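Ticket opened by: R.M.
Priority: normal
Category: complex prediction / small molecule

The reporter submitted a protein together with zinc ion and asked that the result be attached to this ticket for the collaborator who will pick it up next week. Submitted input follows.
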Amino acid sequence: MDLNCPNCGGGVPHNLKYAKLVVCPQCQTSLFLEDDAVRNAGERSAIADDPSIFTIGLPFDYRGVAYVPHGRFRFDYGQGYWDEWWVGADTGEALWVSVDEGDIVMQKPMELKSAPPYERLSLGQTLKVGSDQLKVTEKNWSRCLGYEGELPEVIAVGEEHGYVHLSGPNGLLLTVEYYSDKTQIFRGHWIDPFEVKTL
Ligand SMILES: [Zn+2]
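Result attached by the on-call engineer:
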């Protein structure tokens, strides 16, 4: 389905039925998608075009599965930034791929009735989440610097959220994100960047 940008009238490609936020490729206006309607989100977003392992629309292979990046958020965490790519797989599922310089982690949302409260977690603490035995390896705040492409979440530029990394054996990583209105958990693994091959 193609939509038109309410700011510049240009076409806005829209591949994902669950996309909620799309940046107009012509004028960089951020657009909300709601019930097949498109609404100006009232801000522009652009991400500095520095070298990146991924490119929107350019497929890559990881361990025999083909993925296509649809969009990304960029977050500042004080000592630098990371990108969170929203990626669709040829298996039909979608996931997040986070890139912090050379480190890459693939994660999917995890259903959990309740997450450990941010205030109660401290660095080095061990805890069990679901069946995973984990250790708190990072606890910090981050701020959204911008985004591009198509995304399934609406996060404003400048919006801040707390996050905690919970690490387990064999590269297991759970990330808990604390927003003012919700807490989300993502579960996945660190992956070897050399196994990511552009198609
Ligand atoms: Zn536009």
